[in-house]
Amino acid sequence: MWKILRFFARFYTPGKFVTFIRKTGRKVHFLPKLLTIFYCMQDEDTPKFIKLALMGALGYVILPFDFVPDVFAGFGWLDDAAVVAAALRLAGTYVKPEHREKVRHMFPFFRVHV
């Protein structure tokens, strides 16, 4: 599991994440969850293993090739959404209310569930 996490974490950098958000953010319906992962990962209180898992999840989403290529309309993002959901479940108690509040602040006109 460590090898898989490290593999996908290699594809994450803050710059790549921002570029990804700018290019595909409006197409990704789970963008608030991605940002929640990002804020949790930036928190000093989040353990290193959890940070690695979150980096791996973000790296997987950013990666242009994955199990179901993103170019397939409707189905291409399903595997990415599943990885994001699993990462949030793993992070669990480390996702703080302030992480969620930052995301809600970014999406003031939308009902955001994270």
TrEMBL record:
Q: Tell me the ranges covered by the DUF1232 domain, including all copies.
A: 51-85
What is a single cellular component term in the Gene Ontology annotation?
endomembrane system
Q: Pfam families this protein is in?
A: DUF1232
Tell me the membrane topology, using the record's own terms: Multi-pass membrane protein
> Where is this protein localized, as stated in its record?
Endomembrane system
Give the UniProt keywords, A-Z: Membrane, Transmembrane, Transmembrane helix
Q: What is the superkingdom listed in this entry's lineage?
A: Bacteria
Iron: present as a keyword of the record? no
Q: Which residues cross the membrane?
A: none
Q: What protein name applies here?
A: Conserved domain protein
